[in-house]
Amino acid sequence: MLPIFIIPARRVGSRLQTIAREQMGVNAEMNSQMTERFNVSGAQLVKLFGRAGDEVEVFDSRAKRVRDIGITSAMYGRVFFVALGLVGALGAAAVYGVGAFFVVDGDISGGTLVTLAALVTRVYQPLTGLTNARVDLMTAMVSFERVFEVLDAPESIVDRPGAVDLIEPTGLVEIDHVRFRYPAAAAVTVRSLEAPSAIVGADPDRDVLVDVSLTIRPGETVALVGSSGSGKTSLASLVPRLYDVSDGSVRVDGHDVRDLTQQSLRAAIGVVSQDPHLFHDTIGANLRYAKPDATEAELDDACRGARIFDMIAGLPDGYDTMVGERGYRMSGGEKQRLAIARLLLKNPTIMILDEATSHLDNENEAHVQDALEHALRGRTALVIAHRLSTIRDADRIVVLDGGLIAEEGTHDELVARGGLYAAQLLAASSDSADRIAVLD
Ligand SMILES: Nc1ncnc2c1ncn2[C@@H]1O[C@H](COP(=O)(O)OP(=O)(O)OP(=O)(O)O)[C@@H](O)[C@H]1O
Ligand SMILES: [Mg+2]
């Protein structure tokens, strides 16, 4: 009976392995739809486009596949288990059947036969267990494959051996002949965690930054302007080393950022991104993310500085108000001011603001402008802004165009020059009332 145990186990094992692989694939697809489409902003988009029906249909078909494959896998497992039991029973039956003839012939005693049958059953039990274990192991290997795929995924940004800490930085930022191209999607995604459609797409064949050199002296505020897609955000993300340059180098205080520990580099840099993120937690906890041991007075100071104090004080729960996607939904401007408050608590040497004032109305903008001016004093700042009021206060303006620095100078110099900056200003002032107001 032994071969009957071993041969099917191997085949069933590999079949179950295929099923398990497919099962994890369809599960991942269903989960990625849930996290991507059915989160708060995704669901809102679905509703606004009236596509709920289509999404339900797609989800339905994915959920059905998950169900079907679950049933198939369970059926295979059960049938195999029952078959094993059957083979065991047949073995015992054969012992009794053949043995009975020997007993009748008087070759062995009835007692011997019963003992033999009991022993055979005993041997079958561990054999069945082993065969099952083998099948279980083969399916578990599929999980291992996926776990190892994640563990083996190369980390694109790592501290190099012997990286040094950035100690008491003065805030000198040097961007030296930087060329930059985003890594290909396939290089930065783990295949088994994504829906198949997320990894197709050609490698980017375009340098976002072609050759950019820029030195920001300690304490200087540089405004980065340029048309949408000109690479402002990309350039700013190279300073905290969210990406590595393709060519050239970015230096902070004279150290190439690749020679510094990421921990110390990022401790020195504060970023308010284009779309600041708040965790689903209280306002206080979101603020303390920058400084876990901040006192209430420090929170107050930071919030006053970012002109968000009155708004928070007006909430029934104050700092204990839950925010984030599932909590109190802050407006875009409030979110940005909270992000600025968080940055003030962090108190970094280098500040990077990506259109930090774009969501604010004129009055609020003036407040935040005032707060920023205070906050930026004595710090190195790279400010990406479209609004004239922000740009005008900068020590220097750098105009980015097509991955190159097109112009640089003060507001008056650039206007007098009549180049790209002046042209963009004119175009902007003709369609935006508040910009005209500032121009006056
Ligand atoms: N993660 C990414 N992978 C590949 N390409 C990207 C990625 N992020 C941005 N890009 C591309 O790089 C270019 C520059 O984008 P970037 O976000 O730096 O522009 P920007 O100047 O900040 O524009 P905006 O003023 O609209 O914010 C764009 O063409 C964009 O499509
Ligand atoms: Mg941007």
Comma- or semicolon-separated keywords:
single chain, 440 residues, alpha/beta, ABC transporter transmembrane region fold, Rossmann fold, 2 domains, six-stranded mixed β-sheet, four-stranded antiparallel β-sheet, 16 helices, 55% helix, 13% strand, binds adenosine-5'-triphosphate, binds magnesium ion
Overview in brief:
The protein is α/β, with parallel strands linked by helices and 440 residues long. It has helices spanning 2-37, 40-48, 52-105, 110-152, 185-188, 232-238, 262-268, 283-288, 296-305, 309-313, 332-346, 362-376, 388-392, 411-417, 420-431, 433-439, and strands at residues 173-180, 209-216, 221-225, 247-252, 255-256, 269-272, 281-282, 322-323, 350-354, 380-384, 396-401, 404-409.
Characterization of the model:
The protein folds into 2 domains: 2-152, Up-down Bundle (ABC transporter transmembrane region fold); 173-439, Rossmann fold (3-Layer(aba) Sandwich), CATH 3.40.50. Helix content is 55%, strand content 13%. The radius of gyration is 33 Å and the shape is elongated. The longest helix is centred in the N-terminal third of the chain and has 54 residues, at 52-105. The strands form 3 sheets. A 6-stranded mixed sheet has the order 6-9-10-3-11-12, sandwiched between helices. Strands 2-1-4-5 form a 4-stranded antiparallel sheet, covered by helices on one side. Strands 7-8 form a two-stranded antiparallel sheet. With 440 residues, it is an alpha/beta fold. Residues 232-233, 274, 354 line the site of magnesium ion.
